[in-house]
Automatic annotation (TrEMBL):
Name of encoding gene: Utp11
Protein family membership: Belongs to the UTP11 family.
Keywords: Nucleus, rRNA processing
Main subcellular localisation: nucleus
One of the Pfam families matching this protein, by short name: Utp11
Designated name of the protein: Probable U3 small nucleolar RNA-associated protein 11
One Gene Ontology term, aspect cellular component: small-subunit processome
Classification of source organism: Eukaryota, Metazoa, Chordata, Craniata, Vertebrata
Gene Ontology BP, a term: rRNA processing
Length: 253
């Protein structure tokens, strides 16, 4: 029991208790308590000042004054929205933009083609995936020669070097000079992985160059469609080729 409650009980007065605000009425604002009157008063005066400022602004406004929101604003489903102006582009400007786009794509495609040629010159397409394997045919006069055939002896090299399609020296060369290049299995495996990575990069660049070529063709087709010449679509556009149109023949002056 609080001291105020005990004092009121001794004096015979009814003790004052703050009643809680019902949950259903919390949306209506602060409960009327002695300690909350300052907050309610400040909120009331703030709203009154805002209303007076809006009234003054409305009185000072010139009703004949024009501003662009008068024609750009509208109500949609009760919501005030502003229309976004559409970009006005003439056919000549659109053609020029298409031309700039084609030049940029073509420039990137040519740069990619140069990188492809440089990679091809470095790799020489050795052991490339998808490349038709080289075939070396040997001709014999009898089946006995076929059965006794030894490819290492025929090529005059070591059996360990038969599987190498490049850098396969003869025994006579090995007697004069040492074998150049990597010979250890771990080093050979590492070089093979590096060569595979280079071929993967080459494949990606080739695919990118083809994609840029298709993009340039599609941009050129859209540029041609800006003409008012009568045209008929012959083939639909696909991911690998642009749409094909047949234009009406016009005699040039």
């Amino acid at each position: 029991m609080s001291a105020a409650f005990r004092k009121a009980a001794k004096s015979g007065q009814r003790p004052h208790r703050e009643r809680a605000q019902p949950a259903a009425r919390r949306r209506l604002g602060l409960l009327e308590k002695k300690k909350d009157y300052r907050l309610r008063a400040d909120d009331y005066h703030k709203k009154q000042n805002a209303l007076r400022a809006l009234q003054k602004k409305a009185l000072d406004k010139n009703p004949d004054e024009f501003y662009f929101k008068m024609i750009r604003a509208e109500l949609q489903d009760g919501v005030h929205t502003i229309k976004q102006p559409k970009d006005e582009v003439t056919p000549e400007q659109a053609k020029l933009m298409r031309t700039q786009d084609i030049k940029y794509v073509e420039m990137k495609r040519v740069a990619e083609a140069k990188k492809i040629e440089r990679l091809k010159s470095e790799l020489h397409l050795l052991d490339a995936e998808g490349k038709n394997p080289n075939k070396h045919m040997f001709f014999f006069d009898s089946k006995k020669e076929v059965q006794e055939f030894d490819i290492a002896t025929h090529l005059d090299t070591l059996p360990e070097l038969v599987g190498r399609v490049y850098n396969r020296p003869t025994i006579a060369t090995l007697q004069k000079e040492t074998l150049k290049g990597a010979t250890e299995p771990a080093h050979l495996k590492k070089l093979a992985q590096q060569r595979k990575n280079q071929y993967d990069l080459l494949k990606q660049r080739i695919e990118r160059e083809k994609a840029m070529f298709v993009v340039a063709q599609k941009i050129q087709t859209r540029k041609d469609l800006l003409d008012k010449t009568h045209k008929v679509k012959v083939k639909k556009e696909t991911t690998n080729s642009p749409a094909i149109y047949k234009f009406k023949f016009q005699r040039k002056r």
